[in-house]
């Protein structure tokens, strides 16, 4: 086994690799950028070395800096994790040239699957079914538009390099093709340095099913069954499961054989995933699935395969890289139960899944029967430089229904404060009827998006709790503080206080009247609630509202109160009344950056007349492209940024003035 392993990555996957390496007695080396000086993976590793500034291009994507770091500490192997340089053949070659071992496939295998068009041609030769489409070298826009028309709309434009949904656009109608092609190429160029694309037929009811494969240096290749990754938004996976629901023995055998055939065609070594798209209009059939691509690395969702097989895939990666034969044969691997993985992100589903930043003031996960793969701790900051993944939550059960019940329960038990998350979205998705019935497809989230993303609307009782928190009376009283014993008293009558609260697009005034120690009459809406504080603890309280007891947790940060009540999270804002007076006017006149990012494209110039909803600026933030549009009709008064500029959250990008005559 290796003596010292450098992990060329960050976050949860770096932590994941470190834990297995430590169990095997392998010393680990973490690399970090300036943004990750105090990151969890740096703390867990035996050694850590700085490789550059916060921007990924100057740190985690720098082959030269990572190789230099590995040499300086005497590492004999490098694990790439996933993302960043994990599927970069030049990186694998540089590691070998430096006399170290790349924990992954050969550079030739990476290149064979690195460009989707070449990979599909190779798979056709190997007898693996592929999706109908155009996979050639000619990239003229008019030529590609003609090929799309021949294939028949809807079509899917896909970057030939990379993955993760980058450089991918669905096109419904011919007149939408040119704009979608430009956007896909721009995103692909930024993500992979290659703007070439391919065109595929878009299947009307597709399922995304992938097969985990493994190979060693002795010519052995096997599969570890399938995962269903159909629940996606913007081509990014959200909840994955293994095995795939509705899978028959015949289809599993056909899909597994095709995946092994694909891996054998390129002499694959290590962990890889062969991804298929299945047309399930009439159910799953052995002749209705098609090769999409092969990921020549460990997948984000690998824990569900580990859960149903009992195999540590990172351990297998290390053993294969050191030259050992695979520990098991195909007939020795069996499926045990069912597993789900949910990806918990710092993002706002109600605003188009806009990535969020912030300090994780509260980070509390359930423990019993739940696996949490995280790269952050309570108190860490979600920075704008990298993917906003907080954690992966994995559950396992003897059946699909039992595992799904555990998933729902675990998601509702999570408490994360300090940033917006997709927890409520995930819990609703886990309870979605089609998904519960085992009928997922890649269009399910889009069809149910309104129901899945509406923020939880607080009732009057929630507003009452928020107002009580806002007064500060729930803070644990200090026994040596004589003022805490005086209660709420004044010369005439009861003490009153009014609190303004904003919630889910609404605004309310809640009025509290003190009735004695820890007793209040609180008016919210048309109702008045008697409230009695029964107990306090560091981050919560037990109260009685209208005769019913409630135990809840809360977090107060600045003007925001986060309440954790009954498995739901409510973000309540305490607005500044002076700032609110001008908010509407400013929002109409100025287009601001919703988060830190880079300006990629500016569509307008000073003096241009624009209509409400017209795209003005394209930003790239946290691995996502954001299009900012005009909030009303008007004339561009000023453009305050330039292409390629790094901007901070709230920075004014474009200012509007009314059209003449208004």
Automatic annotation (TrEMBL):
Keywords: ATP-binding, Biotin, Ligase, Nucleotide-binding, Transit peptide
Residue intervals of the Biotin carboxylation domain: 1-450
A GO term, aspect molecular function: ligase activity
Cofactor: biotin
Lipoyl-binding domain ranges (all copies): 582-657
Xref: InterPro entries: ATP-grasp (IPR011761), BC-like_N (IPR005481), Biotin_BS (IPR001882), Biotin_carboxylase_complex (IPR050856), Biotin_carboxylation_dom (IPR011764), Biotin_COase_C (IPR005482), Biotin_lipoyl (IPR000089), CPAse_ATP-bd (IPR005479)
ATP-grasp domain location: 120-322
UniProt xrefs under Pfam families: Biotin_carb_C, Biotin_carb_N, Biotin_lipoyl, BT_MCC_alpha, CPSase_L_D2
Protein name as catalogued: Acetyl/propionyl/methylcrotonyl-CoA carboxylase subunit alpha
Originating organism: Ensifer oleiphilus
């Amino acid at each position: 086994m290796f003596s010292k392993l450098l992990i060329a990555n960050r976050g949860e996957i770096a932590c994941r690799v470190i834990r297995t390496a430590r169990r095997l007695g392998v010393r680990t080396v973490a690399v970090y950028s300036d943004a990750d000086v105090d990151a969890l993976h740096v703390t867990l590793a035996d050694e850590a070395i700085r490789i550059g500034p916060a921007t990924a291009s100057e740190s985690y994507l720098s082959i030269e800096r990572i190789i230099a770091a590995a040499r300086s500490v005497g590492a004999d192997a490098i694990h790439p994790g996933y993302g960043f340089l994990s599927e970069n053949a030049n990186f694998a070659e540089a590691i070998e040239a430096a006399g170290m071992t790349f924990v992954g496939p050969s550079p030739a295998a990476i290149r064979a699957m690195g460009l989707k068009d070449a990979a599909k041609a190779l798979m056709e030769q190997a007898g693996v079914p592929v999706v109908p489409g155009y996979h050639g070298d000619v990239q003229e826009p008019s030529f590609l538009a003609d090929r799309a028309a021949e294939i028949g709309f809807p079509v899917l434009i896909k970057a030939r390099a990379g993955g993760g949904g980058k450089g991918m656009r669905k096109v419904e109608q011919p007149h939408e093709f040119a704009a979608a092609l430009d956007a896909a190429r721009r995103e692909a160029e930024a993500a992979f340095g290659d703007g070439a694309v391919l065109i595929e037929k878009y299947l009307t009811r597709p399922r995304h099913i992938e097969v985990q494969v493994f190979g060693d240096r002795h010519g052995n290749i096997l599969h570890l069954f399938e995962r269903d990754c159909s629940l996606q938004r913007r081509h990014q996976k959200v909840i994955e499961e293994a095995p795939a629901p509705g899978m028959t023995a015949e289809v599993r055998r056909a899909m597994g054989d095709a995946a092994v055939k694909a891996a054998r065609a390129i002499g694959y070594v290590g962990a890889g995933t062969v991804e298929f798209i299945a047309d399930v209009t009439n159910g799953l059939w052995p002749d209705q699935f098609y090769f999409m691509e092969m990921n020549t690395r460990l997948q984000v969702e690998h824990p569900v395969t580990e859960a149903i097989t009992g195999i540590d895939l990172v351990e297998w990666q290390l053993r294969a890289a050191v030259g050992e034969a695979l520990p098991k044969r195909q007939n020795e691997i069996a499926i045990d139960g069912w597993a789900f993985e949910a990806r918990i992100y710092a993002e706002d589903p109600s605003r188009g899944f806009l990535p969020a930043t912030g300090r994780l003031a509260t980070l509390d996960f359930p423990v019993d029967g739940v696996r949490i793969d995280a790269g952050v701790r309570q108190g860490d900051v979600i920075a704008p430089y990298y993917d906003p993944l907080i954690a992966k939550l994995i559950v396992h059960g003897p059946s699909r229904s039992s595992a799904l019940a555990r998933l729902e329960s675990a998601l509702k038990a999570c408490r994360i404060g300090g940033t917006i998350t997709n927890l409520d979205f995930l819990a609703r998705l886990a309870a979605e009827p089609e998904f519960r019935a085992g009928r997922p497809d890649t269009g399910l989230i889009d069809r149910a998006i309104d129901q899945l993303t509406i923020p939880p609307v607080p009732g009057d009782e929630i507003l009452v709790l928020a107002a009580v928190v806002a007064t500060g009376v729930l803070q644990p009283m200090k026994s040596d503080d004589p003022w805490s014993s005086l209660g709420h008293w004044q010369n005439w009558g009861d003490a009153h206080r009014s609190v303004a609260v904003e919630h889910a697009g609404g605004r309310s005034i809640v009025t509290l009247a003190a009735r004695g120690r820890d007793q209040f009459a609180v008016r919210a809406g048309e109702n008045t609630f008697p409230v009695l504080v029964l107990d306090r603890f560091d981050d919560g309280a037990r109260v009685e509202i209208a005769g019913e007891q409630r135990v809840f947790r809360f977090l107060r940060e600045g003007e925001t109160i986060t309440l954790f009540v009954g498995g739901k999270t409510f973000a309540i804002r305490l607005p500044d009344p002076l700032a609110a007076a001008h908010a509407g006017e400013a929002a109409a006149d100025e287009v601001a950056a919703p988060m830190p990012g880079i300006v990629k494209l500016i569509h307008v110039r000073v003096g241009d007349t624009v209509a409400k909803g017209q795209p003005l600026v394209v930003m790239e933030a946290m691995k996502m492209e954001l299009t900012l549009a005009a909030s009303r009709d008007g004339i561009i008064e000023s453009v305050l940024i330039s292409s390629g500029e790094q901007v901070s959250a709230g920075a004014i990008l474009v200012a509007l003035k009314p059209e003449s005559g208004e």
